[in-house]
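Self-study notes.
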Amino acid sequence: MKIEPNHTDEIFRQRLHDVEVEPPPFVWPNVERELKRQKRKRFFMWLFALMLLGIGAWNILSRRSAAHVANPAEQVLLEDKVETVAPPLPKPADSETDDQEAAREKSVFLESNTNQQIESATHTKRATSETRNARAQAVSGKQDNIAPIATFETTEALSAIAPIVGAAHDVATLSLLGEHTLEPLAFMRKNDFPHIKTRPVRKKQTPKHCYDFAKNPNVWMLDAYMGPSFSSLTSETNDSSSEPYRQRREATEQRDWAFHAGLRGSLLLGRHFLLRSGVHYEQMTDVFEHFDPNYVKYIVEITQVIVDNKPVIIADTIDIQYGESYVKTYNRYGLLDIPFEIGGEIRSGRFGLSLQAGASLNVFFWKRGTFLSANEQPTPFTPGAKGAQEIYRPRVGLSAGASAQTFFHLRPRLRVFAEPYFRKILHPLTLENQSVQQRRSNWGVKIGVTKIFD
C-alpha cells in the first residue's frame, strides 16, 4: 500500500504568504510610551552627570585662584657713598691743641661699633698726625712761598675701609691745591655701612566672592528654585475581597514625570543654624490606560406615552455595537504646601553644604483625570465633571521630608545651589470610604539661586 505524502504544511505556507495582521490599537501607544520613558531616563542621567562635572570644574578653578604665591620681599641696598670734601682753612696753632683735635677725631670714629672701624680710625689718625707735623714746620719757618707737601698714600686705611663699604677704592694722592691751602683733602664717609631695608610684602588680595558671615552671623536668605521630581504610588485594601480590584487599578495607572517650584525664606543664626519656611508647589502626573476587548454598546431610545391617563415610559433598544474600547488620559495632581524646616550649614571657601528636615502643611489640592471604578468602567474623578465620582480628599494634610543642599558663591550676596530632597505624604490621598487606599511619596532635585540680606 502506497502512502501519499502530507502536504498540509505546504498548503498553509502558500495560503498565508505575505499575510499581515494589524496589531490591536493599544500596542503602538504602549510602545511609544516606553520609548519616551527611556529617552527621559537618559536625559536625566546626562543632566546629573553634567551637574557633577560642572561642580568639579568650579572646585578646581576656585582652588587655583585661592592658591596665591606671594612675591619675595624686595630688598633695597643703599650704596655706601664716599665723597671727597675740602676741609676748612687751618686755624692758628694756639686755638686748637693736639689733644683737642685728637678728642674730636676720637668722638667721630667711636660712632661705629665694629672692630674694623676702630682699626681704620687708627691708620687714619697716624696719617693725619704726619700731615700736622709737616704743617707746623711750615708755619714756624714763616716762609712766603710754601713748598708743596709731599704726597702720602693711605693704603692701609683704605684697605681697612674696603670690607666695610663693600668695594675697594683707588688710593688717592693728596697734595696742596694752592698757595693758601694748608691741609690736604680728606675722605669723609657719608654712610658707614650699607643699610638693608625690607619693604612690607603686600599679598594680592583674592577677589572676595564669599559673604563675611564672621562679621554678620545672623542674616536673611531668600531662595527661588524649580526642578524635576518623581512620584511613587502605593495602594492597600482593608479586606482581601478587594485585592483583585486593587491589582486591576494599579495596572491601569502608571507614573509619569512631575515638576516642582517654590519660594523660601531662611534665617541664619550664629553662622550655622537655619530656620526655613515658604511656599512649595508640586505637580504629579499619572497615565491612565484601559483596554476592553469585549466592549458592547447599547443604544436605547426612551419614550413617554399616556396610557389610561397615566404616563408610561417605554425603553426600546434600537442598536447594539460590539468591539473593543481603549481609553487613555493623563491624570494630574497639584499640591500647594507651606514647609517648616530646621537645619544647619557649613562652608569652605566658595562652596558649602546644608542639611535640613521638617514638615509641610497642605493648603490646596487639585486633581483631574479618570480612574477604573468598581464596575470595571473608566470613570472621571474631576470635581464638577459630568458623571464624576469623588474619591480623593479635599486636602492631603501633613507631609514629612528632608533635603541636602550643595551651594556655590557667585558673588558675596548671591549663590546657586542644587538640593536633592525626599517627601512623604503621611495620610492616604483617597477618602476613607474607598476600598483602595492610595499613598504617595515624592523625590526630586531643587535647582535655584539664593540672595543674602543683612
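Second protein, same conventions, sequence then structure:
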Amino acid sequence: HEPESVRSLYGARPGEESFANNCLLARRLAERGVRYIQLFDWGWDSHGTNESTSINKGFIDKCRSIDQPIAALISDLKQRGLLEDTLVVWGGEFGRTPMSERGNGRDHNPSGFTMWMAGGGVRGGQTIGATDELGFKATENRQHVQSIHASILHLLGIDNMELTYLHQGRPERPTINEGEFCEQLVTG
C-alpha cells in the first residue's frame, strides 16, 4: 500500500523477495512501534573463488543490490522523524583477507572488518579506526567486539555491566567483564 514514489525510492517491487522489500518492511515495522528488527541479506560469504563472488564482479553486484534500499531506509526514517529514536547497525562478524590464501580465495578475517551505525544517538559523519594499507588488520583506534556491544547497549539505554542473563544456570554478561562504550560514537 505504499505510493509508487516510496517503492521507487527503495527499489522495492510488491510480492518480490528482495532486500529492498525487507528494508521497506523494516521501516513500516519501526513506524508501528516494533522495538527490534533484524534484517539478513544472504550471499556475503564471498571468498572470490568464482565470478559471482569475485571482488571485481560479484561483490560489486552485491553492493549495488543493497546500496539503494539502505540509503532509502535511512532517509525515509529521517524524513518521518524516526531516525533519532531508531538505531541502525550494519555489520557482520568478520571481514575478508585482502589476498587469496593458498589459491582457495579470500578467507575470513576477524582482525579487520567494517561496521557502521546511524540514528539512535550515534554521532554521525565520523570514522573510528582504520586498518593497515592492505586492509588486513586493524591498526588505529581498534575497538574490541565487547566495546562495540557495550556501545550498542549504551545507545539502547542499557548498562552493559548491569545486563545479565542465565546461561547454563549461572548469570552471564554479554560483554563479560570487559567493554566500555566508545564515547566518540555517542552524541551529547
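Instructor comment on the second fold: Strands lie at 87-91, 95-100, 106-109, 115-119, 130-131, 138-140, 165-167, 170-172.
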